[in-house]
Design goal:
Length: about 270
């Protein structure tokens, strides 16, 4: 049933809507894997977009509008659309577009819900595995409806850490220097190409930590909430943290943060 403009949906309802729409969109994406082609580029020649990205975001916006009239949108492909209600959606129709283009199995649909600008619910659907991760603010995190929590690992040396790279060549060089510091100290490092899924994998204990710079809000909005509600230490871009997104199991965070956060190294950790 659609939500009228005068009835503000609960955070629980927003979580359910995000999960249902993300799962539907993931089915569309799954059916197109192996047949997509580049439709254009964005920030660089390696930052690609396919027609499927555009079509799926249009589908998602239509479904969400049908559920919550007057919604606003922030999306990767179709930009910002102002709404007439306090409800908004942050949409990444294909998180891992390069993986999608190359038929690699780390691709997700990410949808976060906002109420008066605050992220209150979200869902990330793993296109290939068919798993959907969800959370709502103050209500915990779930995978396929069952509660999830972060790893209880206490040693960075035994921790699996994921990261990703900017499309900007200069920033990639800086990111390589961070990996050079971290790699000897961790169990291993993975780069899998989907911020949303990496954050969810921290949430369910498949990874001990994930960090990356130069992400957009649609990359991390839902996943960061899911990780935080599962018990992870989470930071997202704020003034003074060099655009860092990170999520980690609490026990390894004090050891990990100074390695990946240049401000922590100088004792300038933003609050």
């Amino acid at each position: 049933m659609s939500q009228g403009q005068d009835e503000a949906p609960s955070d629980h309802r927003l979580e359910v809507i995000a999960a249902e729409v993300a799962a539907k969109a993931a089915t569309i994406v799954r059916g197109a894997i192996g047949s997509a082609s580049v439709a254009g580029t964005k920030s660089s020649a390696t930052d690609v977009v396919t027609q499927v990205d555009i079509d799926v975001e249009e589908f998602i916006r239509g479904e969400l509008t049908g559920e919550c009239n007057g919604s606003s949108f922030v999306g990767e492909e179709l930009g910002h659309e102002a709404g007439s209600s306090g409800i908004g959606w942050i949409v990444d129709p294909i998180d891992g577009t390069v993986n999608f283009l190359y038929d690699l199995p780390v691709v997700a649909v990410s949808i976060a819900a906002t109420n008066n600008g605050e992220i209150v619910a979200g869902a990330v659907s793993d296109v290939l595995r068919g798993e959907t991760f969800t959370a709502r603010k103050g209500g915990g995190a779930r995978r396929a409806g069952g509660s999830i929590s972060v790893s209880d690992q206490r040693a960075l040396a035994l921790s699996l850490v994921a990261t990703g790279f900017s499309y900007d060549a200069e920033l990639r060089a800086e990111q390589a220097a961070t990996i050079a510091r971290l790699l000897p100290l961790a169990r291993d490092i993975r780069c899998m190409g989907s911020a949303a899924l990496n954050l969810c994998w921290v949430a369910c204990g498949r990874l001990e930590a994930y960090y990356e710079r130069d992400l957009k809000v649609y990359d991390h909005a839902a996943g960061a909430l899911i990780a935080a509600e599962a018990g992870a230490e989470v930071i997202t871009p704020v003034d003074g943290n060099s655009d860092l997104v990170a999520a980690a199991a609490p026990h390894i965070w004090p050891e990990l943060r100074p390695i990946i956060d240049e401000h922590a190294e100088r004792g300038e950790i933003p609050s």
